[in-house]
Amino acid sequence: MPPFPDQRTAVVTGAGGERGIGRHVARRLAREGWALAVLDVNADAVMSFAEELGADSQQPVLGIAADVADPDSVDAAFTQIDAGLPPVLAQVNLAGIASPHTLFELTPELWRRVLDVNATGTLLMMQAAARRMIDGGRGGRIVNTSSITAYDGGGTFSKTGYAAAKAAILGLTRGGARELGPRGITCNAIVPGPIDTDIMGGPLGDERRAALSVDIPVQRVGQPAEVAGLVNYLVSEEAGFLNGGSYFIDGGKHMV
User: Fold this and answer.
1) Number of structural domains, the chain?
2) What is the predicted pLDDT for the residue at 199?
3) Of 85, 101, 126, 227, which residue is 20 to 30 A from 137 by alpha carbon distance?
4) Residue 209 — φ and ψ, nearest 5°?
5) Is 2 within a domain?
């Protein structure tokens, strides 16, 4: 594959949350010279963030209101990206919703929603990004977001439905890695443990943070900037031989 061009775009979903991982990833990639398309279902939040990031980084940044679970919304988002930014060489799928419902609380509607946003949204974004990477002929990087919950079934906040959706993402990642690898496109998954964001029912207070840290060998929860550092490497040109991997970023929780 030819080297990555200086002008290249990373698409980051789930960038609307003020304390979320998506914003940290977008900021880190902008510092590394990427143009950014930041997507979120919250239009006001993502537009405001895009304006702020563009001004701070002096990189091209496009904010797009999009529902990743809606094929028409995804298509419309990539139409805007194609028209306004350099070629897409990286796709980072961070959009997701929690699901604290137990097995017997899961209605068909709740089940479909958690799968649609977490798993189907990842699939649709992968398809759209990969088509453009193939057409561009330079390969690319896709990073999906699973969770330690896919392995332990829950216990910190989200439960069975979320665990199933995040396990599906691991299969999507490995299938994509096998199919897209010959085209120079790598697919990898990050597997976060407890991270200091709001997805586990809101901001973590000191007492809850301490409780979550008990089963983590490093005795603390993770920070969004640490996840952003891992993503930054996985989308880099140097990471071209990492493919189909699931990378725990959990302080060692998966060993417990």
Assistant:
1) 1
2) 67
3) 227
4) -60, -40
5) no
